Amino acid sequence: MQHQWRAFFQEWDVVIYPAAAVPAFPHDHSEPIEARWLDIDGKAFPYYDACFIWADPASTFGLPASVVPIGNSPAGLPIGVQIVGSYLEDRTTIAFAELLEREFGGFAPPPM
């Protein structure tokens, strides 16, 4: 897979995909983490599946990633995208995040 990512980034600067399966949500610090569930469209999903599955490609292959908000859910909670770049190209993902932030308005605190 590392060779496939290297080949991909010879043609593309970054890849963009969801940061998570859901918009931001209230934090749950109950233990054990395996017992945490999130409601997605009225169905319960394991916390790990909703929160960490999208981080896997970058973290597994040592690729840099930046997350930037691009909008809000109907409840006013932030929705972000993940920007993944080529190995050791951290500055590329950060620079692209800055461009998206400029276009989409950046972070605004959610309503209390």
Itemize the secondary structure elements and their pairings.
Elements: H1 2-11, E1 14-18, E2 37-40, E3 43-46, H2 47-51, H3 56-60, E4 65-72, E5 78-85, H4 90-104
Antiparallel strand pairs: 1-5, 2-3, 4-5
* Radius of gyration (Å): 16 Å
Unreliably modeled segments: none
Structure class: alpha+beta
Ends distance? 43 Å
Strand arrangement within the widest β-sheet reads 1-5-4
Order of helical and strand elements: HEEEHHEEH
The backbone outline, from C-alpha atoms, is globular
Tally of strands: 5
User: What percent of the residues sit in helical stretches (DSSP H or I)?
Assistant: 25-40%
The main pleated sheet reads as: 3 strands, antiparallel
Strand content: 25-35%
Mean pLDDT: 87
Our count of helices gives 4
Oligomerization state: single chain
Characterization of the model:
The protein has 112 residues and is α+β, with helices and mostly antiparallel strands. 31% of the residues lie in helices and 26% in strands. The chain contains four helices and five strands, in the order αβββααββα. It has helices spanning 2-11, 47-51, 56-60, 90-104; strands at residues 14-18, 37-40, 43-46, 65-72, 78-85. The strands form two sheets. The protein has a three-stranded antiparallel beta sheet with strand order 1-5-4, covered by helices on one side. The chain has a two-stranded antiparallel sheet with strand order 2-3. A hairpin with a 5-residue loop joins β4 and β5 (78-85). The longest helix has 15 residues, at 90-104. The model has no long low-confidence stretch (mean pLDDT 87).
